[in-house]
Specification:
Blueprint lengths: L3 H32 L2 H22 L5 H4 L3 H28 L2 H6 L9 H23 L3 H24 L5 H17 L24 H7 L2 H27 L2 H39 L1 H38 L4 H20 L5 H4 L6 H21 L3 H28 L12
């Protein structure tokens, strides 16, 4: 069992790396905003959405099996399976994207990427390979290397975007993402982590030979059967707003939304993601032994993150347009308006997302597909209504309202299960 001090130290290392990577991205955004226009940011938002969907699609969630593999040979085999899925699946999907008729791209809302679509697919394959290598590092407790890779990816993408923008290279923001993924992969390709971590050699090692890939795929078939569909649905629903903003609204509006999301929403969601694993471990341990203490932990977490996000939320709502104009340039004042509209929803997400693991701990996983399907309905529905009135701000406001209602219902389920002695029994791991 890991010592509490070790858990806190390792969490701190990961949080530090993630925080520095986000700071690099935020620091470079005002520069990018003055080098690139709305069309560039719209293409970037679409690129990131395509890459996210491809990364989830090609791995079939086998990456989640690297950490839980029974032994090192099996873990190496799962890793090789993931890398082959990433590279092979990415190549096939890139070929499909290359051959996709222009009319189909338009119908799918991908016209803004144009000839860059196959490269966006390959970038998603690279992100998938990086996710598999990060899972391998997690198994080996090479947390320093995990943090370094994220910082390298963010730093190279930031510097590349600035340099390519200064040189007026077409699609500089997109090429910067390619450079960033490449830097992250190269940083993870080293054979050793820190001196306290085991070798990261994935090609061999002492002990029994690794099983063949077909065998290991069958051994972990629960990942593509049960985890992958819900993960892909979740990823698609997360990317829908950006995809539909590009497809249904003007380039200027979509570019403003892309900048807003990267400048405001991504840091919020990354902070929540960094806190989630810490809450999950503590809540699982507490809920198994003391329900009243678990309720207090839940409330403290909600209140703590509510206080953290309250002042930034009120500031964006009151002066988002002025702030964005001052930080990113007067041409981006409309992005500040969108930030003000999104602020309440992002505040609620910040409060709730770190505690989302409570649903798993309390054995309420059966509700996850229900919320996923609801998102698949109300997110495009809200933006469609906004498009009928030619107002992205209206669509985002409707989306935000629906999201707040869904999050509230989600947490009501958690609270009722936690408050009732007859509620679902805690579970230490997802089924």
């Amino acid at each position: 069992m890991m010592r509490p001090g070790g858990f806190i130290r390792d969490t701190g290392v990961l949080a530090l790396g993630l925080g520095l990577a986000q700071l690099i991205t935020l620091a470079v955004m005002p520069v990018w905003a003055r080098q690139y226009d709305a069309a560039d940011f719209a293409a970037l938002g679409l690129w990131m959405s395509v890459a996210a969907v491809v990364s989830t699609a090609v791995l079939l969630r086998y990456d989640t099996c690297i950490v839980i593999a029974a032994d090192e040979p099996e873990a190496r085999a799962v890793l090789r399976l993931c890398l082959r899925l990433a590279l092979g699946g990415g190549a096939v999907l890139a070929a499909v994207a290359f051959l996709l008729p222009a009319s189909w791209r338009d119908a799918l809302g991908l016209a803004a990427l144009g000839a860059w679509l196959p490269l966006a697919v390959l970038a998603g394959a690279g992100a998938a390979a990086m996710a598999a290598l990060l899972a391998w590092c997690n198994r080996r407790r090479a947390y320093g290397l995990m943090s370094t890779s994220r910082i390298a990816q963010a730093g190279v993408a930031a510097a590349g975007g600035v340099a390519l923008g200064a040189s007026a290279v077409p699609a500089g923001l997109l090429w910067a993402q390619v450079l960033g993924v490449g830097a992250g992969l190269l940083s993870l390709a080293g054979r050793r982590a820190a001196s306290t971590s085991p070798s990261l050699d994935v090609t061999g090692g002492a002990g029994a030979p690794a099983p063949d890939l077909a065998t290991v795929a069958r051994q972990h078939s629960q990942a593509p059967r049960y985890l992958w569909p819900s993960a892909l649905l979740d990823t698609v629903t997360q990317q829908l707003p950006m995809l539909l903003a590009v497809a249904w609204f003007s380039t200027a509006a979509a570019g403003a939304f892309s900048l807003t999301w990267r400048a405001v929403a991504v840091p919020v969601l990354m902070l929540a993601a960094a806190a989630g694993p810490v809450f999950y471990e503590r809540f699982a341990r507490t809920a198994a032994a003391d329900r009243p203490a678990a309720r207090r932990l839940l409330v403290r977490t909600w209140v703590g993150f509510a206080l953290i996000g309250l002042l930034p939320t009120l500031t964006l709502m009151a002066a988002g347009e002025v702030l964005f104009g001052a930080v990113f340039g007067p041409q981006w004042r409309d992005a500040g308006t969108l930030a003000a509209v999104l602020a309440p929803m992002l505040w609620v997400m910040l409060v709730s997302s770190p505690t989302s693991g409570a649903l798993i701990v309390l054995g309420l996983q059966r509700w996850s597909p229900v919320f996923g399907l609801a998102m698949l309905v109300y997110r495009p529905g809200a933006l469609w209504l906004g498009a009928q009135h030619d107002s992205l701000a209206l669509g985002l406001a409707l989306w935000g309202g629906c999201e707040v209602v869904a999050i509230t219902l989600y947490n009501v389920l958690v609270w009722r299960a936690l408050a009732s002695p007859a509620g679902a029994a805690p579970s230490r791991r997802p089924d």
